[in-house]
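User: Here's a chain of 273 residues. Predict its fold as tokens.
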Amino acid sequence: MSNEEPLKTATDGVALVAEVIKAAGDSPQVKEAAGNLGQSAVTLTKAINNVLVPLAAINFAFDKARIYFAEKFQQDISEKAQAIPQEHIVEPKASIAGPSLQGLAFAHEEPDLKEMYLNLLATAMDGRVAFTAHPAFVEIIKQLDSDEARLVREILQSPTALPIVQIRRTNKDGSYHVLVQHLLDLRNDSTGVAVEDKNLPVMVDNWSRLGLVEVAYDRKLSDEAYNSWVDQRPEFIRLKNEPQTDESSIKYQKGLFKRTELGKRFAKAIGLQ
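Assistant: Prediction complete.
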């Protein structure tokens, strides 16, 4: 078997799943299945149980993914869908369901990413809010790693702008060099102790690239929003204590960090609002 064959198998599987979903709307069996949720609040329609799950399991040539779709997917998606009134259950669009199944095949062992995919599928199945589920959201999830997914979930849940700073080495003439980009007040959830993450600047740039957040250093919140934490950050303290030999000084530039309109809609589609 060539190196390209497993990838081709997976790609063909995704395409086939998408075609089945697309064709399902005209199937009498699928239409009859729409009433099944009325009989059991935790059982998804036959369209999912009997069509999507087997195809997803068979066509992805990965043992763990096959086991997940065969043994756990039905329960997971049923739990997400059970709160949807029977009369509002709709078939998810192929452009969302197909790629989401592909994403789950690779991410079902990563809880935060898995949660995003399942919630997006459930949103696409709820006729009351299905319009908020955009195909682009699947691609956004695919471009997050598990650490990012956990952190961005917290960011997207904030209804207001958050303080963010750059730490700079500033010269007497006003010129500067950025030493730390996109510093947020990250803390351990259990202890409240400040946590450093060297990947944070890349994460923030990625979220900005994906259109989820906006970062601006020409605007700021009230001074209290920064003074209460920046001076105590280990990154700032460490740089502040380094000897400065050229009459430069370590300062920070205040900025703000907030969700975009796309970020708000993405948050709603993956169950954060």
